[in-house]
Amino acid sequence: MMTxxxxxxxxxxxxSSPTAVSVRCEATLELGRKLTKELxxxxxxxxxxxxxxxxxxxxxxxxxxxxxxxxPAKMRACCDAILNLWKHRHTLSDGKRPFEELEPLLKILxxxxxxxxxxxxxxxxRSVTSAAGKNDEVEKWLKLIDGLDYSxxxxxxxxxxxxxxxxxxxxxxxxxxxxxxxxxxxIEFPIINMIFDEADMLKDSDSGVEARERIEDRIKRLEEFAxxxxxxxxxxxxxx
Length: 240
Prior knowledge:
mainly alpha
């Protein structure tokens, strides 16, 4: 069960300079304001969410009204509560979770990085290919399976990245706030950054040599996949 235990330290503030701590704390307050707005103080029918929104809003007001002597302690308690709530963001109710619209895509994107050589569908193909030995016909078909696996990852990732573009803009603010606050990133951030990287690669392909080479390699392998698919279509037509 989630609790907002503000007494538990989330950050080790002693490791940072006073200026860095101040900047990070202000960023954390902004994250708290965003969470409070998302949870909804007055309109939400989610009782627990409404209580958490009130609680965080009250802590933020305490910081804003605190004297110079009281402010450090109240700021720390407020930041720890905000970061603890952020850590439990996945348990928030439907319609209130950051990155909620990306959740179905994140689960799939996590496992289909084309730069990862691990096969997605046929993980034993390479070891079986080696075991095939001198049988050229068997080896040829097994290598085709390996190429199919890579092509499937490229195509699926491209489609999902395009699908994510409609939702990714809503996540940009969450990412920026959480990073500025030094909040727990979880699995979403690498996946979201992967989407950003994919978009940047396509955008930079005109000027970036490495990006252009990666895209050209994908095009070449997809073209080979298309030829192979048409060859299979031809074989199947002869069977009917």
